[in-house]
Structures are given as structure tokens and as C-alpha cells.
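Subject: Interface between my chains keeps coming out wrong

I've been trying for a while to get a sensible model of this assembly. When I model each chain on its own everything looks fine, but I need the whole thing in one frame so I can look at the contacts. Pasting all components below, labels as-is. Any help appreciated, I'm running out of ideas.
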Amino acid sequence: MGRVRSHNAEKVLERLEKKINRQIATSLAACVHCGNCSSCCHYVLANPDDPTYQPSYKADQLRKLFKRHVDWTGRVIPWWVKAKSVYTDEELEELKDVVFGKCTNCRRCSINCPMGVDHATFNRMARGLLVSVGIMPEGVAVVSKDQWEIGNQMGVLKEDYIDTLEWMEEELQEEFGNPEVKIPVDKMDCDIVYSINPREVKYDPRTIADAAKIFHLAGANWTMPSEGWDMTNFGLFSGDDDLGGAVGRRLYEKVEELRGGRLVISECGHGYRSTRCEAPNWGKIDVPFVMESSVITMLNYIKQGRIKVDKIRNEGSYTFHDSCNNARSCGLFEEPRELLNLVVSDIREMYPNRTENYCCTGGGGAMSMSEYTPLRLKSGKIKAEQLEATGANFVVTSCHNCVDGLTDIIRHYKLDMKVTQLVNLVAEALVIPEKVVVPEEEVPVEVEKPEEAAIFAGKKILVVDDEPDIRIFFTSVLEDNGATVIEASDGDQAIEMLRAEKPDLVTLDLNMPGKDGGQVFEAIRKDEELAQTRVCIVTGRPELRRLIYDRPVAPPEGYLDKPVDEETLIFNCRKILELG
Amino acid sequence: MSDALHFASHRLQEIALVTMAIVYAFRIRWILKFPAGKERQAPTGTGSLKPRTSIIYSWFNIAQPWAMESTRTKFFLYAQFVVFHVGVVAAIGLSFVIPYGPGLLESPALMNIIRILCFAAFLVGILRIIRRVGSKPMRVISSPDDYFSLLLLTVWFFFAGLATPNNYTGGEFILMTYFWMTAFFLIYVPFSKISHYLYYPFTRFYLGKTLGRRGVYPMVKGHR
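Reply #2:
Try treating it as a single job with all components included. I did that and got this:
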């Protein structure tokens, strides 16, 4: 009698053959196990004693199914070619750990395979097979759900998005002293429809303001869509072509609805690749308008003389990190360098670079899979060495995942370096025409400091976290900026202090012993006296947000993903407290 | 020449070749039954965007050891690869020369070249066996087929080198062994990893097409 196969295993095998195209079939059949790919993978280089990180070994975990069920020799004498079937959900879980946890789909092994085996492509297919039966990291499930249901991968609500745009618009109007400076929304018949990454709304709204400043000074006829504005696409990471196609279609249809001339995609590697290159294939859509990276748009503005930049304004030394999706899958590696060269003076090339660059380790959706974080940081050793060797003060990248991935590596390996993006550098280098009222150039460091110190003056903030280090960090940052901070180390203590102190804001850790953050949050919302308290959920595991989503109460005012840096903490608290 | 050797060097080889060709035809049909992916997006990138250029580049990438880090940084392994595969061409060529053009081997230069190539490939085969058996990472990724195919070719190179003078007057063992091994090799190939050369044009074609459309191929230098 044959072994009984689980329902999920049945489904995976059933869908395997349907998902295979000619490129994947030959890639799966062609590997000769020469081992040449091994030295090209950052996971292997950082884990030299563990041969299971080799790309060919990882690929074999899918290849054995292909050989057993699709190819011929493996059907007759499976042991001869290491063909093997799958029977249990536990085996599928093991496959999940390989395809999600040990590979970022960076494609470095693909371009180094003498046979032309495109491992990254079928690794993505393997992810898709597992996702189709619900086997995936929690973070992938949460983010995919947000993108399906809310329309963007960070679950940003429309009102929050519009609020952020208005907030940035006000800041720009103040900076230019001109109420006519706009961040247009849903303006019809524009030359440019500008799409962004939801991370910009939640954690880095400055990039939106910087882009708006550039468009304004270039005299661009542009708009941002009120919906369908998320150019990121978790379908690329989850391997779910249906999600990938649907997300792309949402964006394309909005551009057509607005009768936009072209879609400009802000700096994001996977967003650019998905929107520009892959979603038309996933969704079988022939896109009728031009799509380009904002890097190219900014470069063209400078070349055409529509904006003027002065590279002296960006002090320090800079190196450029090529995002895998931009460089290895979209050929976008010369334009960013050309642009960087126009806005900074001291550039130090990183080696290897362009299509040979190493992954930031945050690609392939790795930033949302917190269960693999230790492994990710360990494999980041290669990137850390690469960064350190440049001796630069700043690493510039055109990708939001890379920003987060590199920030983590810099912190973990204690490098003296900061991460920035081209849009920030271009905005900083802008030469503002005389007619525009500009704040004095040297103002920010000297004058804004005392102003910033009083950002939270008069505000009482309760920091709830079981980790003393986090409490100390939050407290010192918030107190330095004028807040009165009180602390609680567990849920019960937090509720007591809430009642006694009535803080304006609570930063609430989710994962705590005893009464967890989810329970505390629900208790706050259900208590008439406390229900209006503003809450910022803080967690190192995005999938735990489900503890919040599943509760029948009004959502929190904000989220923060650990690790949190000073700037992000201040930005988010300001936003939640509506301090402009 | 005995009837047995004549059969082994002529009819047996023809049977083996026809068998291989038939199996390959089925194999190609099998490959073509999978749908080819369609590229709908406009080309991106700064590389050559002509599909033909990138596909040709991809096919000949292996002949440019400087183009890939994996070959550039491991030149000794790359040299082994070249010697091994040139040895395959020489040993296969020998199976046609002996029955259909034995006069060619009367040229000492040609005979010595084929011999050297076969023995050099044999030595590389030994090195490859040592690497595959001695290295833990290689053992982890190797299947019985990987070991057997490598062993088969290494022994075959050895006999091809010995058989090159085509001298059966002192005994037919070497030539018989070479031709029977050649026939087995030809029939076994489509079922083993050795058939990778059949897939090579396909994998490289699609990788070249994909990366060409994305301006990645031909590769731009990204190292010191």
C-alpha cells in the first residue's frame, strides 16, 4: 500500500506541473551539480560549514519533486537521481524554510551558473506553490492579506495616506513660503502619475516631500493617485502570480482612469521590477503607457536643466548599493550612478557592484519574515564587509527594502555609516530659484535643534515594553524632545498607569509576558475612560499585528516595527500626536 | 579485425546513435510541450536590448570565463572544464574516425593530439572524482547518477586514449572495451545528467532572452 499523502501535499504536486514553463523545466532538468554557484551566494559565504545553503542543494529540494513527478528517469529509478516525493505538511514546512528562509531570490547564482539555470525563478515558483496551500511565513501571510484587502502591503488606510500627503504639502508650503505648492491628488490628464511605497507613508514621509519638491521645481504636471498608489507588489516575494497581477492591474487602471501620460515609480527595487517588468506578465496585461523609475525622471530633469543641483550641499563620502531587483533583473545600474555623480562629490565604488553586487539580505520579502531574522543578519556579514571596505560615510540605494536591510546590517555589525536614497540627495542638492522664499541655508542644525527639542513639550507618553533597553532608548529619545515619559514593563502595570496618568500617547509592545500588548490594547479601547488614548503598536514581528487586527475594536493610531531608530520614532510620534 | 570488433565499431555504434537520436527527439518534444513564457513589458535597462544579441551572448557566455565571477575566480576549475569537454569531443570523434576514417590516425600528429586530449581529460576526470568524493559540499549535492556519470566518462577517456592508435593486432580488448563503453554511453546519456548539453541551448536561450530584455545581458563589468 502506498503512503498516504496530505491534502496540501496532493495540491502542491497537482499544481507543480501546471506551473512549470519551458524555462523552469529546462532549469530544473539541467543542473549538473558542478558546485560553481556555491561561492556566489551570500548565505553560503556566511555559513561556510553548512553545505545545505548551497543554491544547488536548495534548488534540489524542489528539483527532487520535479524529477519524481514530471521528469522521466526519476519516475523509474528515483534513488538514482535523488528524486523524491512529498507526503506530509511537515515536509512542506521544511521546504518553506528553504525557499523563504534561505534564499532572497537575489539571482546572483543564476547569473553565475554556467548552465544558465535560473534558480531564483523556480525558487519563486516553489514559494507560490506553498502559498497556494497556505504554507508560508506568518509575515508573508499578513502582508499579502493587507495587499489583497486594503490595497497596499502595509495596511495604510486611505485617510492616513491622504493625511500624510496633506501634512507633507503643508511642510512644503511652509518651506517655500508659497501656498500654491501642491501635492496634487487625482488630478486628471497629468504627464506623470507618481506611485510610492507604503513604507514612505508610514516611516519615511520625507521621501514624498522630497519628490514633491523636485516635481514642483521642475514644473512637472504631476499627480498622486488617491487609490492604487502602492507600486510595491508582494506577489513577487510570495510567488503568487494572481496577487502580483491584481496589484499591477490596480495601479495600471488608476493611471488610465486619470489619463496619466506615464507612471513614475519611486525608488524601490522590487516595486520597480514588479510594476515595470513582471506584473504585465503575471496579469497578462499589455500596459499602454510608459513606466519609468523616478531615478530616470530626476536624472532627466537635471540633464534638461529643469532643476539645478549643487553637489557641494551633500557633504561626506558616498557609496552606491545596487538593489538586486533593479540591477540584476531590470538593468538599472548606470543611471543611479550618473545621478549620484551629479549630486555628491565624493563617491567610493563598492566591489563587486552592478549586476554582481551582493544582496542587502533584506530582499525577497525577508524583512517581513522575522522568524529568519537571526539567519538574515548572520548572512549579512558579506554585505557588512563590502560596506566597510568602501570607507564611505553614506550608502546610497534606490530601494526601500535595501534601506531597511542595510540599516539592520549597519546596526548589527556596528558600522559607522548611514543609509540614504537618491531622492533625498537630489532634494538636498537642489538650488532653489531666487523668487522662492527659502529658509536660510544653515538654519537646520543650529536653529531647529532647540525647536526639535520641544517637539513633544507638554505631552505625556507611556512607554510599555518588557525589554529594559527598549524602554531606556524610547524614554531618552522622547525626553530629549520635550516629552514627559512614564514607563511600564508589563500589561497590568500599563493599565494601572494609564488610569492614573492619562498619557497622550502609549507606545505598546505586543510581545510581553503575562498580559500581552494585544490584550492591553483591547482593554484600552473597551474602557470608556481610556478609549480615546492614542496608541502606537511596537513589534519586532509584523505577523503579531494579527493580534490587533482580530480584535473587534477601533485600530491603533500607528505601528512601529522593531528595530526602531530615533528618527522613525520621532516621526511617528509626531504624526500620531498631530504635531505637524 | 574480428567480426565481434567489427560489429562493436560499426553496427553497434549505429544502433546506439539511432537509439540516442530517437530518445532525444522524444526529449525535445517533452521540453516543447511546456509553454514558453511571454515577455509583455517594454525593454528596460542599459544593456543591449536586441534579443538576438543577448541570446547569442548567453549561449557563448561559457566561452568567456571573465564574464562570470564563478569562472573568473576559479580558473583552475574552468580549465578543467575545458579539458574535460574537449576530451569528450575527442573521444566521441575517435568513435567515428576508427570505423570510417582509420587512415587519419596514420598521421602521428593527429593521433597524438587525440591521445593527449583523452588522457588529459582522464586526469581531469580523476581530479573531479576526488573533488566530488572528497568535498563535503559536493557530496551533499551529488546523486548516484553524478558519481556514475563521472566515473563512466573518466574510464571511457582512459580507454579512448589507449584505443587511439587503433592497433588490434596485439589484442582487441582495449578497442572492444572502448566501443562497448561508447555504445553504452550513447544509450545512457539521455537518461542521465550527461544530457545537460541538450538543455543548455534552452536554458541559455531563455536566460538570455529574459536578461537581455531587462538590459542585464551582455554583462557590464562589476568587479575590480
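Reply #3:
Confirming on my end. Residues 3-24+67-198 of chain B form a domain with the Fumarate Reductase Cytochrome B subunit fold (CATH 1.20.950.20).
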